[in-house]
C-alpha cells in the first residue's frame, strides 16, 4: 500500500532519510531560486502578453504539483514560467485577436490543453515522440526564439507599440515607431541593459580578480536581475516615473491563486490544439534535457514517462490557478543545484516563498517600469543564442546543418510554430533521403585473414565467380528500390559471376518492402544464372525472415560469415587469400 | 548533335535497327491494346465523372508524348487512363461542387498540375520521393481503392444516383436508393457482370482443357470486356434500351482532340495542388513499378528520372487535348509485351488506332449502356484486391501490417487521399518508433575465435573489466537519447567495469544529435571512472568523426576490431578465450 503510494507520489520517497542538513540546503536553494524567479515571473508574463500576476500564479501551485507527482528523487528541477514557452504562448494567442479577460481565459485554455496532452502522453507511454526533435532542430529553435524574443521586447525599451510574431512584421513596425520613442523610457531601458551586462560579465571577473571565490563572484551574475529591479523600483518611486509617461507594471492583484476554471469552448480548444501540442513537446524536451544533465551530475537516473507526468501535472495546476504554460528552467535549476539543493522539496519551499512574494511584495512591484523587465528578458535570452553550434553542425554533416539553419530562419522569418514544424519535417526528409541511397560496398578478403573489406579502401582478394556485397544500411522502404537497381548494375558489369553473397552485418532491419525487393532480386538473379546468398544475418533479422514464407522460395544459403560463404562457393580463392 | 537529340527523344534510338518483323509485333500489340483500351477509356472517363470523349482523348496524344519523351528503349509501356487515377480525379473534383463544362475544365487544370509536378520532379531529379510510398502502403491503397471503385459503380448497375467518396457516404445512399432500382438496367448490368466473370475465369480454363494453347485460351480473358461491350451494343440497338430508361453513354463528340487550354484560375489551381501531388506520386509509382518489372523480363534497365519526365509529358499532353490524368496500365502493358511488342512504337500505333476509333466508332458507342461499363470496371478492379498480402505483411512485421491496414481502412472509410496520407505518415512514424529503441547487445568472445557474439544467444567469454556493447542501428536523432539511458543502466549494473567498448559494426551513420550524445556519454562515463572506446567503426563514419572536433575531447581509442580492443584492454581474458 505504502510502496504503491510512494510510486505514485515520488515526493514521499524523498522524506525517508530527509534530515535538517539537506533541508537547509534545499531552503537556501529555494531562496536563491525565488530571488531569480520573481523578476522572471513578471517578465515572462509580460512576454506572453499576460498581466504580471499570471507569472506569479504560475510560480506557486505548479511547483507543488510537480514536486508531488513528477520530480525524480535526488533531482531538484526548478519548474515555472520560462521565456520560450511564454513566446510560444503569445504567438499562439495573438492570431485570435482577443484582449483583456478573453485573452487571459484563452491562455488558461491553452495551458489546460498542454497539461492534458502531457499527461496523456505519459499515460500512453509516448515519451519517445520527443525524440523527433533532433538536437540541431532544438538548437536552431532555441537560438531563433531567443533572437525573436529579444526583438519583441525592443518596443518596451522604446516605449512604443509594435506587434508581430516574426522579424518581417516586427522590424518595419519598430522602424515606423522609432520617431515616437519615449525618452525617459529609453533611458531607463538602456540603463538597465547596460547595468545587467556589467553585473553579469565584467563585475564577476573583476571580483574574482580581487580575490573572491568564483562561486561568490558568480552571485553577482545570478542576482543581477534582482539588483536591477530593486534599483529601478527605488528610482521609479523617487522620480515618479509613471507620471512622466514611463509605462509601469501597474496594480498586481494580490489575492491568493484561487481555483479558476479555464473556459471550455470546444471551437477555441480545437483552434489551440496544434499550438498546445508544440508547446507540450518543446516544454517536455527542454525539461527532460535539463533533468538528465542534472541527474547525471548526481549519478541519478530520470524516468522520462514520470517526468512527462510531472510536467503535465504542473501545467494542469497552472491552468486551474490562473497561470501560463510552465516547464523546467535551466538557469534556476542550476542555481538550486549549485547551492546544494538535492531534493524535490526545493520546489515546495520555492512555492511557499513565492506565495510570500505575491502577498507581501506586490504593492511594491506596481511601480516597476516595463522597460526594466524588457531589459532583463533581452539580456537573459541573448545568452541562449549559439551561432557557433550552427557552424559546428554544418561542418559535421550538412544535412543536420540545413535542418538547424532552416529551423532558425523559419522561426525568425515565419514564426516559432512554423519554424519548428519546418525543422522537424526537414530533418525527417533529409534523414530518409540519406538512407534512400545506402552505402553498398563490394568487399574482398583481406590477405592472411578471414576478414572482408571494401575493395576501394583495402588491397583485398576478390573471387571471379563470387560477388561479395556489403550493405551498410537497414533494408527498408526508402531504399528498397535502390537496392534492386544497384545490384542489377553490379551484376551486369561482371559476366563471370555465378554467386552473389549479400553480407548483412550492417542490416539491422528488413521491412516488408525490402522483403518484397529481396524476393524480386532473387528471382531476377536466378533467371540470369546467378544464385543469391546471405551472410552474417543478425539474429533478430533472421528470426523474422524465418517467420515469413521467404525461405520457401529462396534457393540460396545463409552463411554464418562471409568467409564461410567463400570457403564453400569458391574454396580455392578463400584458401589462397588466407595463406598469402 | 544527333546523339544529344537521341538522348532527349529516346524514340529516335528505337529507329536504329527497327525492322519489319519488330514493326509487325508492335502493330499486333497495339491492336490488342486498343481493343482493350476502347471500353476502358469510356469506363474510366465515367469513373472520373467526365464525358466519354475525355477518356478517348486521353488515349491519343498522351501516348505519342510518352513515346517521344519518356519511353525506355525495349520497354513497351502502355500509358493512358487508369482506374485508380480516375477515382482520384473524381474525389479531387467532387468537393468543388462543379458540373458540366466547369467540372471538365477543372479536370484539365488538375491534369495540367499533375503533368507540371511530374516534369518538375524529373528536372530536379527528385524521383526518390516516390520511395516514401512503401510496398505495404501501396498494397493497402490499391486494394482499398479497388473496393471503393467497385462500390462507386454499383449505382450504375442499379440505375440510380448515389454519390460519395467513401463507404460511410456511399452505403447509406445506395441503401436509400435501392427501392428505386431500375429493372432493365439491373438486368443489363448483372448480366454483363456474369458474362465477364464467365469469360475471364471458367471459359479460358475450359478452352485450355479442350486443347487450346494457354496463350490463345487467355485471349478470351483479355478480350472479354470488348466482347461484352459489342454484345451490349447489339442488344441495346435491337431492344432500344435507351427509350426504356436504361442510361446510355450518349452522344460522343467525334471531333479530333484539339488544343484546349486548361483554365488558369490561381485559386482553383491552389485548391487542386495537394490532390495533384498525390495523383502524380501514385501515377509515377505505379508506372515505374510496371516499367521495372517489364524491363527485368527483357534484361533492360529503367531510368526513373526519364520515366518521370515521360509521365509528365503524357499528362501535359492530356491537359492540352481535353483528357484526364494518365499513367501506365499493367493489364494493357502486359498484353502488349505478351504479343511480342518491344519498342515504344507500340504507343505510336495505339494512338493511331485510337484516333480511328474516335473518328469511326463513336456513333456506335452512343447506345452503350452505362451499366455495362460499370460492370466491366467492377470485374476489372476486383482482381486488384489482395487481402492475402495484408495477412502476409502482418505476419512478417506488425508495423508494416498496421500501415497497410490503416491505408486500406483510411481509403474505404475516409477517402483515397486521406487514406494514402494516413498510410505514409504512419509508416514513417512506425519506422522511427522502431529505430528509436535500437537493439543493443552485450557481446562476448566466442571461445576459440576472434568473433564476438550476443551473450544471450551464445556461450561466450566476458571480461570483468571491459564491457563490450554492440549497437545494431545507426545512431541518429530518434535513438540518441535512448543510447544515453541504456548505457547508463548497463554500466550502473556492473561496478567492476573500467572500459566500455562500443562495437560499431552496425552503425552506418552518426548524425549531429548522436555525436552530441556520444560526447555526453563519454563525459559521464569519464567522471564515473569508465573510459569509452569505439571499435569496428566503418570508413565513412570514421571519416566524418575525424572532420569534427570529437577526437579533440575523446580520450578513448578506436580499435580496428573488438578482438583488438580486448587484446589491449584485457589481454588475459582475450588470450584465455582464444585458446579454449
TrEMBL record, chains A, B:
The keyword Membrane appears for this protein: yes
Stored InterPro entries: SLC26A/SulP_dom, SLC26A/SulP_fam, STAS_dom, STAS_dom_sf
Domain STAS: 456-569
CDD domains the record matches: STAS_SulP_like_sulfate_transporter (cd07042)
Single biological process term from Gene Ontology: transmembrane transport
Keyword terms, alphabetized: Membrane, Transmembrane, Transmembrane helix
A Pfam family it matches: STAS
Record-linked PROSITE patterns: STAS
Sequence intervals crossing the membrane: 102-124, 136-154, 174-199, 219-239, 272-296, 308-330, 345-365, 372-391, 411-433
Membrane topology of this protein: Multi-pass membrane protein
Keyword Membrane: yes
Protein name: SulP family sulfate permease
Species of provenance: Pseudomonas fluvialis
Source organism phylogeny: Bacteria, Pseudomonadati, Pseudomonadota, Gammaproteobacteria, Pseudomonadales
